[in-house]
Amino acid sequence: MCLICDRIEMIKNGTNPYFVKELETGYVVIGDNQHFYGYALFLYKNHNYSELFQLDMPERLKFMEEMSIVAEAASKAFGPEKMNYELLGMGDAHLHWHLYPRRKGDIGNYGNNGVGPVWCLPFDKIYDDSNRPSAEELEKMKDALKTELEKLLQA
Length: 155
Ligand SMILES: [Zn+2]
Prior knowledge:
This protein is an alpha+beta fold and about 160 residues long. It is built from four helices and five strands.
């Protein structure tokens, strides 16, 4: 069982409240937890591959191109100082990009005196229920990201 396949199934059923937009190679969603405000993910459309290098080159480049457009849209929608891009996969091997808007001080004093990747922050803080967006906040975030995405895709 794969959590990402489950979420994609919910998108297809119209029951995923985090879904923003379908692109050619994947699905854009807002992250469940928003300690890093504007955190979004870009989920590859299927579970057939676990490594970026397994995609044939046109598909690989398209997936990366679309990821960078999602990152640009998130940056415009949520106004961070810097975007972080991560394709990990030790938890769920399904190809998915974590797109983290970053701001100074967002990991407190963790990491190297407050400097480091998001994962320097303990998991119980990243995934604390208190940083889940309300239904209203979630709608606002989805609208903002979708608006910026559509502008970039039309350009
Ligand atoms: Zn999967």
